[in-house]
Amino acid sequence: MTDHFRGRPTAVLAAQKLADLGRHKDPRVGWALVLPDSPDVPPTERHRADDAPVAAQRLAGARTQSGEPLVVRYAAGNVDELYRYLPDGTRTPLPTTGDGPRGVGAGALPYYLLLLGGPEVIPWELQFRLNHVAFTGRLDLDEEGLGHYVDAALTEWADSETDATSPLLWTAELGRGDITALMRTEVGERTLARWRDDTQIGDRAVDLRGAQATRALLAQTLADRHPGVVVTTSHGATGPLEDAATMRATLGWLVDSEGSLLDPHSLVQLWEPDGVVWYGLACCSAGGSGTNQFTDVLDPASDAGKVFDAVAALGAVTADLPRALLGAPKPARAFIGHVEPTFDWTLRRPVTGISTTDSLVEALYDGLFQASPLPVGLAFRRYFLGAASLRSRWASERGQVEESPAARTAAFLAALTGMDRQCTVILGDPAVVPAALPAE
């Protein structure tokens, strides 16, 4: 019998080590700037970032091994595909489902994506989709603010005085039956418990609840303690419905326990964000999409339906708080918040009472509090994957809605919670890393 293996090496090669998704400069991972596919830019120049502000070009160059910005283009009206261009002007479509090659190779979609510009230029819907397959952030800042942010990011907030061992929880509550009570128990208190159990944090975690959750005490505590992570739960301003100008000017402003609005512009005059990572659970804390995504699941005559229609009528917008934090002279690292009003079904199942915030609490503690913390985008990966799972459940339940009231309820809840959760977004560079806990 012929020995077909004679002369072949006897050594067995191990499988290639998986890419570390925390290392954006790994060519199998990659980082890219997402810019509009503008007709004003010749196709032969669209592989470059020359049409982006100089500060953004500096950041994009620093995020690649080659020092040359890697650019991905968004074509207006098409959220199904992005594009990579070659110097000869030809382009390769990149499905926003994440199918196809990943990384920095030809025709590949990088894992880290930074959308540059407001949602009127690059829509929130694109960010919602990309959240399922990539670590996606957005910078919607004026030239001065963008310069502040990039300067800090390139030094990794080297001069920041933020204290990773002293996070801040601010949970405003407006009555026992109000959604803010559920926000406090399912997000605020569960996150605080994780902080308290950490021997490096413990009692250093600051807790402002109930009557203490005022805008004045928040500003004073921020200035005194310089927390590395801030978690706030509250209402976000979505009114008055009859005054569109005021509604747009204050959309998403946090509402304290006294019913007063937190003015972001005044806040950054009293305190320097200086490298903080802020998660704000509140209606429209990140902005509004300009579209009522809940038309098919909410009665337009209901109070909730009227609010969503009024918010949609304002157009696509980024809220003031993340813009003020990220564009400050000493800017925040990242803001994580909600586009559109939010629902209590995202926090707890209405029938069983089971909490549904495990993946969120995991992101707010396990992802952000380490001697070597995860990049912000990676820290929220499980949370965003949960949104995709809920949308999948809605698709399967929808086919059974004619069979029973229970099936209709299940389909409704899956649709509502899936859409609500997918409206969480990251503002800032998703590759930034929070302030690290001291090495033990």
What does the model show?
The protein has 13 helices and 16 strands. The chain is an alpha/beta fold and 440 residues long. It has 2 domains: 124 residues, no CATH class; 260 residues, no CATH class. A 6-stranded mixed β-sheet has the order 8-7-9-12-15-16, sandwiched between helices. The protein has a 4-stranded parallel β-sheet with strand order 2-1-5-6. A two-stranded antiparallel sheet has the order 3-4. The longest helix is centred in the middle third of the chain and has 19 residues. It is globular, with a radius of gyration of 23 Å. About 2% of the residues have low confidence.
Overview in brief:
By secondary structure, this protein is α/β, with parallel strands linked by helices. It contains 13 helices and 16 strands. It is globular, with a radius of gyration of 23 Å.
Q: Which helices and strands appear, and what pairs or packs with what?
A:
Layout: E1 31-36, H1 54-62, E2 71-74, E3 81-85, E4 91-95, E5 112-116, H2 124-130, E6 135-139, H3 143-154, E7 168-171, H4 179-197, E8 206-209, H5 215-225, E9 229-233, E10 235-236, H6 244-250, E11 254-255, H7 264-270, E12 277-281, E13 287-289, H8 303-313, E14 316-318, H9 320-326, E15 334-338, H10 358-367, H11 376-379, H12 381-398, H13 405-422, E16 424-427
Parallel strand pairs: 1-2, 1-5, 5-6, 7-8, 7-9, 9-12, 12-15
Antiparallel strand pairs: 3-4, 10-11, 13-14, 15-16
